[in-house]
């Protein structure tokens, strides 16, 4: 079987989008930090992520939850949660002081929710 079709490209092209965006390979290294926290059970991951995104600043490239634990090693009424945060500046290599300042902002915001850092 054969099928033949005639398509008028002049009428199709105005309805297409050629919005290709290319992001090149990063020129500067990323810095990764993990934070492990004791979180009240009433606090949601969404609340935590909102604070991380809001307080991380322009250098926060990404973050992700990689562990949740509730069990005998965690105090009653709490859960253990751990996040990985990735920092990167688009125009320079980050200094330790910049990363520390961003982490302090994030941790101060998390403490306002009753979250404690695990040691």
CATH topology (level 3) name = Alpha-Beta Plaits
Level-1 CATH class name: Alpha Beta
pLDDT averaged over residues: 93
**Major sheet summary line:** 4 strands, antiparallel
State the fourth-level CATH superfamily: Ferrodoxin-fold anticodon-binding domain
The chain-level structural class is alpha+beta
Strand order within the widest sheet? Answer: 2-3-1-4
Integer-rounded radius of gyration: 23 Å
Order of helices and strands: HEHEEHE
**Proportion of strand residues:** 25-35%
Low-confidence residue ranges: none
- State the CATH architecture: 2-Layer Sandwich
Find the count of extended strands (DSSP E, 2+ residues): 4
Indicate the percent of residues in helices.
Answer: 25-40%
Number of domains in the coordinates?
1
How far apart the termini lie comes to 70 Å
The count of helical stretches stands at 3
What shape does the CA trace take? elongated
Folded structure, characterized:
This protein is of the alpha+beta class and 119 residues long. It has a single domain (26-117), classed as Alpha-Beta Plaits. It is built from 3 helices and 4 strands; from the N terminus they run αβαββαβ. Strands 2-3-1-4 form a 4-stranded antiparallel beta sheet, with helices on one face. Strand 2 and strand 3 (78-87) form a beta hairpin. Helix 2 (45-55) packs antiparallel against helix 3 (96-111).
Keyword list:
3 helices; alpha+beta; 119 residues; Alpha-Beta Plaits; 26% helix
